[in-house]
TrEMBL record:
Superkingdom: Bacteria
Native source organism of the sequence: Methylobacterium radiotolerans
Reactions performed catalytically: 2 GTP = 3',3'-c-di-GMP + 2 diphosphate
Protein name, per record: diguanylate cyclase
UniProt domain Response regulatory: residue ranges: 2-120
SMART domains the UniProt entry points to: GGDEF, REC
Annotated ranges, domain GGDEF: 162-290
PROSITE patterns: GGDEF (PS50887), RESPONSE_REGULATORY (PS50110)
EC number from the UniProt entry: 2.7.7.65
């Protein structure tokens, strides 16, 4: 595991690192708690924070609280606090401030590594629970909730939200595929389309045979061109069926960011454009109304 250790004493940092590095852990030591917090924010792979309560400029309790808030968006983080003054009040304050565990300083190698093994079990379980909560079980893509959460976070971090676009796509005549070839073949078709869009920005399955892609840093023209490439890729797919290979096509709606927009509004306009693509003959790419780009048909 990657572990951040924070203590005002470099000697203590060296001692603790020497106890856990032989077990294969990667240790990142800090004497400055604010720098440690910045590192945690920039390094989601870190799974454990070990901090003394007596650190500066953020005290240990403040660091625990800030790290816990940070973990809500960066992923599982197990926080262990250390103090040479073990008492009920210190333990209660640490736990109330977001710590998961408390250990006396200096810790013994046996106790510290046992607690790290427990931390690894817990964070691994949390990662799996998060994966299950965010993942569509059929395709492995983001589910609807995770897709919108990731899209909002990407837009919030983008310095140019006006260059964010959305693509909605839907498998054409999907009911016919299920009726004529069976739901197993329909599932294979859904998986195949999900695999095609998996490398496209932030991609998710919104439900049924409908998918969405958010493209940060792409304007409308670039998004339409990307959707057209995806349309061609889908058209080239052949799904194995009992009566021979089955061809697919998808319809696409594309929208781009407007002043005062939200991710929901962006996706809604792409959905309206998708509806127009379905009504206009399917197997085509249609931008949202007023975008000034003509539909591209297959």
């Amino acid at each position: 595991m990657q572990i951040v250790i924070v203590d005002s004493s470099r000697v203590v940092l060296q001692i603790i690192a020497s106890l856990i590095e032989p077990r294969g852990h990667a240790v990142h030591p800090f004497t400055d708690s604010e720098r440690a917090l910045e590192f945690l924010a920039a390094t989601p792979a870190v799974r454990v924070l070990i901090t003394s309560l007596e650190v500066r400029p953020l005290c240990g309790l403040e660091l625990c609280w800030s790290a816990r808030l940070l973990a809500e968006s960066r992923g599982p983080l197990h926080v262990i606090t250390m103090s040479s003054a073990r008492n009920v009040r210190s333990l209660a304050e640490a736990l109330d401030s977001g710590a998961d565990d408390f250990i006396e300083k200096p810790p013994s190698a046996e106790e510290l590594n046992a607690r790290l093994r427990a931390a690894e079990r817990l964070t691994t379980m949390q990662e799996e629970l998060i994966r299950l909560a965010e993942t569509d079980p059929l395709t492995g893509s983001y589910n609807r909730r995770a897709f919108f959460n990731r899209a909002r976070a990407a837009v919030a971090q983008d310095p140019r939200p006006d260059a964010v676009s959305a693509i909605l796509l839907d498998i054409d005549h999907f009911k016919r595929i299920n009726d004529e070839h069976g739901h197993d073949v329909g599932d294979v078709a859904i998986k195949a389309v999900a695999d095609l869009i998996s490398g496209s920005g932030i991609a998710g399955r919104l439900g049924g045979e409908e998918f969405a892609v958010i493209l940060p840093g792409r304007d409308l023209g670039e998004a339409v061109a990307h959707a057209e490439r995806l349309r061609g890729d889908v058209q080239a797919l052949r799904i194995p069926g009992a009566k021979g290979p089955i061809a697919l096509s998808c319809s696409f709606g594309v929208s781009t960011w407007r002043d005062g927009d939200s991710v929901e509004a962006l996706v809604k306009r792409a959905d309206v454009a998708l509806y127009a693509a379905k009504g206009g003959g399917r197997n085509r790419v249609v931008p949202d109304q007023g975008a000034g780009v003509h539909a591209v048909a297959g």
